[in-house]
């Protein structure tokens, strides 16, 4: 949601949805941020100097210290410009081959923020014991596997090589610059609080003199000749006091063998990142990472949005590498291509140490494993949260909620969750129901829960400053609120609730207290949310944090957090802590923890452990619909798989055609929610006229039939980190024709390929098939044939049609009985779509558990593999096997299956669930018989058509086996005799 400032109201009035209405002047460009300006000026000077440019940083070889096991080395680093300033460098190689590079100022005037990694990482990574650093005259190096890390001494340059080929190079362009802490120049220090030691003052005076000399001055040559916004910075009406002075960090990171890069979400751009520097860049400003509440954001821009994940993939046909920069402060990233085979990036951060993880790949799947090893995998969400979420700002009363639910049921449209935005809360004091409109919140929630549904209610981080609000009062008493620049008292800003303060979740004293608020039972020790139930889950909005009267609609950078750190140091991490603690609070409301659902707008590296995100306040335009897909893909490859963009667009009144298309996009997002601004017309799907209403009903039902696919994909990502939505470069890393594709993608390992339509008036589209394989139209069973070098096909895409294909070689499990909510599907039978590949085989899997508890961690689940294999020339055998059985104590995909028994409690509870239909596509001819192994002939039908093994295209042959009476929890085989 968005600031309701006077300006906000004005721009709402003039906001036609497709006008570019972003208030750009609310947000800094690089040239308005002192440190970004300095960083870009540095790279401009380097470009001008060409080969004469030389990094002043070098490694002091005499200071190298290698740990006794030889796995880690540390060394001093010096800059020729400031011989008295010391820096320390440390390199270590983790067991999985990730290289960690840390550099910090040593014994400086102050300390740089060094805790970003501590928040992002799941654990201290294990260091490889097989590495031996060896120091030579010019460099120190370590070889491991096919990789080698080389640290050149002078100038300092760090290179990761594979097979002798450069993969990642740090400071190859000489843009490394860690601005050391200094005292403010004497003449200006009279009123300064920073109290420089006498000799420092003298040194500074000396610096001043040096600066004035007109002769070539190496410092000015490198750093520029002005103290550009070193000690204070103005933006619009705000002044940032910058008491610590300049402390920015610049570093160039090059990928000499990689022409395409992806990642660094969140930005509204293509998935393959366009350039911001070099010749004819697409964007003139660098990509910005500074979590911000951007009103009516642009559909194509490197501007900051709500979340920041400093993760980048660099890709080519023969190699993928990645980097993760654990950096919590504002960061700008320039991207340029020296050729179409290499990429240069330049990272400019406001504060913090250099803490860089180089992920060696060599495939996208390896990068996902390496990144998950650092920051964790996405959470396995509650099953119901993969259903349809109906939201609006606002459902205005408990009766409104009941009516909306009734209308869904009257129209037989499935829905799992009803949402309440800020207006449920009296004076926007979250937790506190507006008694007039929500007199019976528990009854209302119980009415929703009666059909297996849930509610999600918003809880924002700004607390109204009033003593009659327990959340504020208790936070204030406990002194866990963010402090103003003085470090004393409580920071006060303006948000939905008027004068507000913000909890400092960096303060561990806030943690247990925050968790206690969500208890639904009374407590003697403090306030608890007794007017709620465990069917209410939480939406965390505004956690960038959004502050209406703050600089860039956020918190002043000189505010003070726990430990004395400034807000600038931790800004991008801040939102993650809020959703972390809220998800823990929801998880632990009951004695037996249950899976929480917490949606967050702001996020950082690691947020995938806490719940879902969405792409914020999008517009109801075709451009936003399209870029939403690209943003969800980008978030997924950076770990945040559980992502979606608001169906319909937050702003505007989409016409029926657009709304139908938006639902088609939405059901192929991992997180599926419709949401709308308070000024928009109601647009719940039951309000549509026919034929649109029927179309949306079919679309929502399609999502529900595919819940087994989605849940199985979530299980996988929760273990491996491979994203739920898989772009082409992830599936087919060697196919350059797929590198730029970001409007069609695969769902998990299911073999489903979708290309949602995001243009008005479309009746057909083209789809790229990357391989010589059959792709079956999901609805018509038309067999399309790809080609070894890739091929585009034309397909129908009228409004009621979704280009959705099953890749030959896949078996897709669905549940096709329409239900009103997903929990009501628990005992429903399955349909298996067996899409034979050119070799006549196929495989797939399904994962099921109770969807709400943690009993799956004790082995309470069902996890089956389905396999179709040609046996000789004359038969096909389709079987179901247990993916977890027979391997007690063994790890599968990294998960210990200790405790798993085929006859576990959950499996018992779904013992009677059958496969009610099997559809086999692409058989080579009419079967002579179809039998369950060891049983009699089954009931089946066959339509002749194109066989998977041939070269033909057209209607595929279809064998439909009716009710084979095999059960999902058991092993079985069906033999098709040709
Ligand atoms: C890359 O550049 C080379 C030389 O300029 C050109 O021949 C080649 O077609 C380009 N490749 C791509 C994928 O654009
Ligand atoms: C999440 O919160 C816990 C406290 O419950 C804390 O120990 C942990 O460091 C936090 N992690 C992140 C990533 O915020």
TrEMBL record:
Q: Which UniProt keywords apply?
A: Endoplasmic reticulum, Glycoprotein, Glycosidase, Hydrolase, Signal
Please classify the protein's predominant subcellular localization into one broad category: endoplasmic reticulum
Pfam families, sorted: Gal_mutarotas_2 (PF13802), Glyco_hydro_31_2nd (PF01055), Glyco_hydro_31_3rd (PF21365)
InterPro entries from the UniProt entry: Gal_mutarotase_sf_dom, GH, Glyco_hydro_31_C, Glyco_hydro_31_N_dom, Glyco_hydro_31_TIM, Glyco_hydro_b
Q: Look up the signal peptide feature and give its range.
A: 1-21
Specify the Glycosyl hydrolase family 31 C-terminal domain's residue ranges. Answer: 721-812
Q: Which GO terms describe its cellular component?
A: glucosidase II complex
Q: Where in the cell is it found?
A: Endoplasmic reticulum
Q: In which pathway does it act?
A: Glycan metabolism; N-glycan metabolism
Protein name, entry field: Glucosidase II subunit alpha
Native source species = Mycena rosella
């Amino acid at each position: 949601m968005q600031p309701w400032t006077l300006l906000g109201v004005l721009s709402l009035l003039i906001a036609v949805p497709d006008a570019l209405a972003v208030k750009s002047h609310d947000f800094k460009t690089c040239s308005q941020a002192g440190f970004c300006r300095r960083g870009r000026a540095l790279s401009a000077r380097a470009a001008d100097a060409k080969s004469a440019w030389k990094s002043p940083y070098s490694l002091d070889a005499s200071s190298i210290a290698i740990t006794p096991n030889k796995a880690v080395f540390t060394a001093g680093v010096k800059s020729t410009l400031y011989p008295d300033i010391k820096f320390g460098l440390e390199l270590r190689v983790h067991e999985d081959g990730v290289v960690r590079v840390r550099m910090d100022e040593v014994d400086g005037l102050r300390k740089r923020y060094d805790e970003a990694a501590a928040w992002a990482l799941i654990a201290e990574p294990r260091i490889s014991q097989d590495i031996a650093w060896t120091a030579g005259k010019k460099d120190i190096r370590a070889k491991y596997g096919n990789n080698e890390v080389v640290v050149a001494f002078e100038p300092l340059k760090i290179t990761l090589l594979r097979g002798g080929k450069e993969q990642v190079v740090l400071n190859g362009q000489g843009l490394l610059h860690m601005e050391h802490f200094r005292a403010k120049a004497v003449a200006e220090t009279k009123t300064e609080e920073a109290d420089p030691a006498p000799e420092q003052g003298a040194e500074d005076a000396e610096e001043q003199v040096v600066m004035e000399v007109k002769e070539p001055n190496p410092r000015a040559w490198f750093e520029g000749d002005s103290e550009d916004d070193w000690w204070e910075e103005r933006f619009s009406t705000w002044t940032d006091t910058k008491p610590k002075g300049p402390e920015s960090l610049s570093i160039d990171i090059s990928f000499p063998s990689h022409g395409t890069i992806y990642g660094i979400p969140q930005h509204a751009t293509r998935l393959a990142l366009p350039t911001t520097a070099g010749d004819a860049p697409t964007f003139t400003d660098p990509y910005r990472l500074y979590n911000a509440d951007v009103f009516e954001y642009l559909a194509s821009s490197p501007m900051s949005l709500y979340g920041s994940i400093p993760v980048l993939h660099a890709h080519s046909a023969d190699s993928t590498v990645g980097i993760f920069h654990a950096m919590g402060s504002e960061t700008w990233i320039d991207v340029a291509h020296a050729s179409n085979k290499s990429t240069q990036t330049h990272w400019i951060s406001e504060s913090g140490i250099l803490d860089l993880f180089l992920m060696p790949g060599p495939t996208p799947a390896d990068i996902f494993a390496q990144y998950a090893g650092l920051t964790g995998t996405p959470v396995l969400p509650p099953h119901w949260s993969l259903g349809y979420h109906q939201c609006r700002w606002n459902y205005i009363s408990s009766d409104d909620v009941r009516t909306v639910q009734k209308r869904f049921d009257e129209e037989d449209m499935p829905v799992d969750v009803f949402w309440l935005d800020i207006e449920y809360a009296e004076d926007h004091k979250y937790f506190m129901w507006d008694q007039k409109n929500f007199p019976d919140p528990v009854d209302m929630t119980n009415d929703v829960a009666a059909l297996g549904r849930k509610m999600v209610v918003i809880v924002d981080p700004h607390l109204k400053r009033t003593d009659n609000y327990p959340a504020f009062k208790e936070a204030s008493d406990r002194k866990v609120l963010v402090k103003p620049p003085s470090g004393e008292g409580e920071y006060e800003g303006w948000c939905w609730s008027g004068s507000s303060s913000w909890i400092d979740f960096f303060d561990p004293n806030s943690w247990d207290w925050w968790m206690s608020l969500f208890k639904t039972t009374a407590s003697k020790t403090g306030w608890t949310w007794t007017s709620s139930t465990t069917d209410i889950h939480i939406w965390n909005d505004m956690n960038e944090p959004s502050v209406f009267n703050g600089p860039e609609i956020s918190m002043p950078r000189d505010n003070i957090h726990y430990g004395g750190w400034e807000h600038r140091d931790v800004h991008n991490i801040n939102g993650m802590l809020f959703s972390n603690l809220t998800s823990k609070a929801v998880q632990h409301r009951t004695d037996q923890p249950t899976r929480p659902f917490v949606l967050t707008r702001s996020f950082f590296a690691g947020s995938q452990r806490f719940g879902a995100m969405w792409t914020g306040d999008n517009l109801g335009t075709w451009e936003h619909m399209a870029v939403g897909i690209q943003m969800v893909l980008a978030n997924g490859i950076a770990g945040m798989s559980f992502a979606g963009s608001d169906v319909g667009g937050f702003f505007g009144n989409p016409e029926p055609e657009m709304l139908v298309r938006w639902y088609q996009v939405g059901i192929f997002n991992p997180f599926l929610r419709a949401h709308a601004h308070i000024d928009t017309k109601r647009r719940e799907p039951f309000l549509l006229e026919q034929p649109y209403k029927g179309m949306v009903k079919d679309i929502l039902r399609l999502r529900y039939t595919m819940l087994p696919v989605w849940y199985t994909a979530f299980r996988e990502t929760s273990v491996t980190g491979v994203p739920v939505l898989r772009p082409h470069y992830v599936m087919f890393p060697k196919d350059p024709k797929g590198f730029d594709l970001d409007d069609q993608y695969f769902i998990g390992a299911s073999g489903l390929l979708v290309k949602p339509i995001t243009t008005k008036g479309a009746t057909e589209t083209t789809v790229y098939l990357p391989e010589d394989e059959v792709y079956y139209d999901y609805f018509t069973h038309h067999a399309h044939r790809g080609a070894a070098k890739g091929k585009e096909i034309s397909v129908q895409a009228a409004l009621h049609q979704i280009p959705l294909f099953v890749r030959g070689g896949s078996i897709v499990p669905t549940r096709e009985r329409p239900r009103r909510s997903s929990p009501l599907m628990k005992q429903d039978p399955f349909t298996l779509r067996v899409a034979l590949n050119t070799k006549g085989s196929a495989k797939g899997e399904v994962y099921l558990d109770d969807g709400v508890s943690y009993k799956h961690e004790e082995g309470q689940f069902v996890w089956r593999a389905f396999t179709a294999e040609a046996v000789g020339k004359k038969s096909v055998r389709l079987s179901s096997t247990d993916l977890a059985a027979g391997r007690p104590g063994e790890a599968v995909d990294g998960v210990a299956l200790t405790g798993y028994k085929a006859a576990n409690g959950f499996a018992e509870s779904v013992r009677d669930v059958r496969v009610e239909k099997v559809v086999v596509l692409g058989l080579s001819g009419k079967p002579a018989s179809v039998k369950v192994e060891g049983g009699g002939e089954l009931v089946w039908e066959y339509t002749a058509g194109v066989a998977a093994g041939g070269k033909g295209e057209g209607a595929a042959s279809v064998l439909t086996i009716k009710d084979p009476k095999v059960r999902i929890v058991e092993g079985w085989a069906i033999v098709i005799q040709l």
